[in-house]
TrEMBL record:
Highest rank taxon of the organism: Bacteria
Organism: Marinobacterium weihaiense
Gene (UniProt): pbpC
Keyword vocabulary terms for this entry: Transferase
Keyword Ion transport among record annotations: no
Domain named Glycosyl transferase family: residues: 44-220
InterPro entries recorded: Glyco_trans_51, Glycosyltr_51/Transpeptidase, PBP_1c, PBP_C, PCN-bd_Tpept
Domain Penicillin-binding C-terminal: 685-766
PANTHER family the record matches: BINDING PROTEIN TRANSPEPTIDASE, PUTATIVE-RELATED (PTHR32282), PENICILLIN-BINDING PROTEIN 1C (PTHR32282:SF15)
Protein name as annotated: Penicillin-binding protein 1C
Length: 772
């Protein structure tokens, strides 16, 4: 009896040993590598990179596949999948009988395990090849569970062209993941691997429909689906997209793929819906651009600095505009885009408030003499006006008091990427763009205006660190944002009083090479760059004209509600006085010294005095102490007559550089009393500079028959070179010395001023009228 059982047992053991030896000698091929997928925050495919075998194969797990697909697959292909050992003898016999009756191959009898084995180890269409497939199927069942074999089929089944796997087929044909397949779509993808070249829905929709409908009717014949459900699926048309992978945020996808060559699925924080709309918007915007120009746009959610929209080039892959270059990462000059940081740091240092007086005037005797973008001068301006109008001279004045080293150090500590000589040898030119940075890094620093002064790097992937770096105080951040949050249509003189929550700043680098626009709202920070990737100039293409319109369109696309940033407790609203810049209730502003009032935002209840044009020891005090006699004439205390009573007056005066832009009654010759004739100690203390040729307040008419009036002017008492200004705009002098010819052709009210090389000024107002 024992012998009767021992012989089969030995045979089984030998068979197992033989199977083990063959398994080690002929191991199962490893599944081919999947394509690389870069995914949006919700899992939607942004861009894919083909697998090493140039196949579009996207990894997918069973739980990510629509249950209806698995139901139809098992019912149509292999109803005994979970019960057979890899081959189904009954199915093979049935297929052989059907083929013999039909006289052709109408059924293969292959199980899903056999199909997977054939995908892993392709075999010739011969009897020997079929035997090898069957043996591989048994080997497959030896090594893998049923769920793992099903997963291999999900990822390896052919679907036409270079598509492999149900996820790739669903994405390419239907534009959606396999987890959202409809009944009809699932039926089509179940049958398609049988004849993938002949039943491709993008090429042969009629054939594909016939094959699909066969599967759907089988589900009813098997009693698995109701007739109503099948009829509904049969009515669904066969419509497929061309099998092309999506290209959402293509340059970001390439960047992340190159940074992780071993990754298969790369998650991002991109909002796929926003990215799609953003690319469409950029596509329309670029139609009006030069073919050699490119642009970049970055949209960042402030609360976590997540990048939700990313456009690295105007036309991806375009040769003329170098569409392969990611301009969000290119080092470029930011132009005036760094100015808000200088104002915020000056607020924190207690140098200014929102309406401190700054000087947009010529910088005579100073080493650094930049020009404004428009070439003219505005005279004394508020901090708010200077920042909103992006005036160069006031911010240079501010940086000289702040210190260029402190500005660069603050930006560096915040993590701003900077390159160029301005980093190692800081100067005031840094604030006008004398360093290089990237759009991505700049946007990360701008988020500080909406995050209480905390800056940081933007985040591209869920695992990227969210680290804050202090750049400015919450109060300085809010005041700076409040200044920048001006309605652009009102600023351009158009009607528009709706709530506006976007603080924005433009910038233009030297030679019109780069146009910038950065915007900060409570929810979003948006960065826009426009220019040529090769650094060539684009004359006339400055930030306000080229980049700002796109910034406003992107912000409108976001649909943000008009709820402004909350004001910190450190910020208060007070009335301040010019020319001294201090509070209205300050004792120095009494007795007629408050010549102009402003409603200002103060940080930590601080109202600093007006800054000098340059931080030098020779800076002139704006509060003069003057001794006057009973007649109101100035006297030195040592030259009063016996018994004569003198009184001391404190008189606020404007900076001497502002004189040409002041009202006559605010100028020094009107504000300060003249010296008494008998007080020789004061004689000669005022520089006698005076324009002759036109009387102050006069009315001039153009004689009949003439188009242009030429008036010869002369300046008495001047020293050195003269600089003339008409309504604040510089005039070119055709004559040297104290003589000047003024040419008038337009009727109007004029303000004429002159400044010598020592800063002495004279000014007058007159009216010019053409003869009727």
């Amino acid at each position: 009896m024992k012998r009767r059982y021992s012989v089969p047992l030995v045979g089984i053991v030998l068979l197992l040993v033989l199977a083990g030896v063959l398994d080690r000698a002929f191991p199962l091929p490893q599944p081919p590598a999947a394509a690389v997928r870069v995914l949006a925050a919700d899992g939607e495919l942004l861009r894919a990179f083909a697998a090493p075998d140039q196949t579009w194969r996207y990894s997918i797990r069973p739980e990510q596949v629509a249950p209806v697909y698995t139901e139809v697959l098992l019912a149509y292909e292999d109803r005994g999948f979970f019960y057979h050992p890899g081959i189904n003898p009954l199915a093979i016999v049935r297929a052989a009988w059907q083929n013999a009756r039909a006289g052709e191959v109408v059924s293969g009898g292959s199980t899903l395990s056999m199909q997977v084995a054939g995908l892993l180890d392709p075999y010739p269409r011969t009897l020997v090849g079929k035997l090898r497939q069957a043996l591989r199927a048994l080997q497959l069942e030896w090594h893998y569970s049923k769920a793992e074999i099903l997963t291999l089929y999900y990822n390896l089944a052919p679907f036409g062209g270079m598509l492999s796997g149900v996820e790739a087929a669903s994405q390419h044909y239907f534009g959606k993941p396999a987890g959202r397949l409809s009944d009809a779509e699932a039926a089509l993808l179940v049958v398609l691997p049988q004849r993938p070249s002949d039943w491709r829905p993008d090429r042969y929709p009629q054939r594909a429909r016939q094959a699909r409908d066969k599967v759907l009717r089988r589900m009813h014949a098997l009693g698995l689906w109701s007739e109503t459900r099948v009829e509904a699926a049969l009515r669904e048309p066969v419509a497929a997209l061309p099998p092309q992978p999506p290209l959402l945020a293509p340059l970001l996808a390439r960047r992340l793929q190159q940074a992780c060559l071993q990754c298969r699925d790369i998650p991002t924080l991109i909002d796929a819906s926003l990215q799609r709309r953003l690319q469409h918007l950029v596509g329309r915007y670029t139609r009006g651009m030069n073919e050699h120009q490119s642009l970049a746009v970055m949209v960042v959610r402030n609360r976590d600095r997540a990048v939700r929209g990313y456009v690295g080039a105007a036309r991806f892959g375009d040769r003329l505009s170098q569409g392969h270059v990611d301009m969000t990462r290119a080092i470029r000059s930011p132009g005036s885009a760094l100015k808000p940081f200088a104002y915020a740091m000056a607020l924190d240092r207690g140098l200014i408030h929102s309406h401190s007086m700054l000087l947009d005037t010529p910088r005579y005797g100073l080493r650094y003499r930049p020009h404004n973008f428009t070439g003219g001068f505005a005279g004394p301006v508020t901090v708010t006006d200077a920042l909103q109008r992006s005036l160069n001279l006031p911010v240079v004045q501010l940086v000289e008091h702040l210190g260029a080293e402190r500005l660069v150090a603050g930006l560096h500590n915040s993590g701003l990427a900077m390159q160029g000589p301005g980093v190692t040898d800081p100067s005031s030119a840094v604030v006008l763009g004398a360093v290089g940075t990237t759009l991505e890094s700049l946007v990360g620093r701008y988020t500080a205006f909406a995050r209480g002064g905390l800056a940081g790097d933007v985040r591209l992937r869920p695992g990227d660190p969210d680290q804050d770096r202090w750049l400015m105080s919450p109060g300085a951040a809010w005041i700076s944002w409040r200044i920048l949050a001006q309605n652009p249509w009102r600023a351009l003189g158009q009607v528009g009083e709706s709530s506006w929550v976007l603080g924005w700043k433009t910038g233009t680098s030297y030679g019109y090479r780069d146009a910038w626009a950065i915007g900060v709202s409570p929810e979003w920070t948006i960065g826009v760059w426009v220019g040529r990737p090769d650094g060539s100039p684009s004359p006339g293409r400055h930030g306000r004209r080229t980049a700002a319109p796109l910034l406003f369109q992107v912000h409108a696309l976001l649909g943000e509600t008009g709820v402004p940033l909350p004001r910190p407790e450190s910020v208060s609203r007070e009335t301040v006085c010019w020319p001294l810049g201090t509070r209205l209730d300050h004792p120095h502003n009494r007795n007629g010294n408050c010549l102009q009032q402003h409603q200002a935002w103060l940080l930590d209840n601080t109202a600093p005095s007006t800054l000098a044009q340059a931080p030098t020891a020779e800076a002139e005090p704006l509060l003069r102490r003057v001794w006057v006699d009973a007649t109101g004439r100035a006297r030195a205390p040592g030259c009063r007559a016996p018994g004569q009573h003198l009184s001391m007056r404190q008189i606020a005066i404007w900076p001497v550089q502002a004189e040409p832009w002041l009202k006559p009654q605010w100028q020094r010759q009107q504000r300060l009393p003249g010296p008494a004739d008998s007080c020789t100690r004061l004689n000669g203390t005022e520089v006698p500079i005076r324009i002759t040729g036109i009387e102050n307040g006069s009315r001039i008419q153009l004689p009949p028959g003439r188009r242009v009036l030429e008036v010869d002017l002369q300046v008495h008492g001047s020293q050195g070179r003269l600089n003339w200004y008409l309504n604040g705009e510089p005039l070119e002098s055709e004559r040297e010395g104290a003589f000047f010819t003024l040419k008038l052709s337009r009727s109007g009210f004029y303000h004429l001023s002159v400044v010598d090389s020592h800063g002495n000024t004279d000014a007058m107002r007159f009216t010019f009228e053409k003869a009727l």
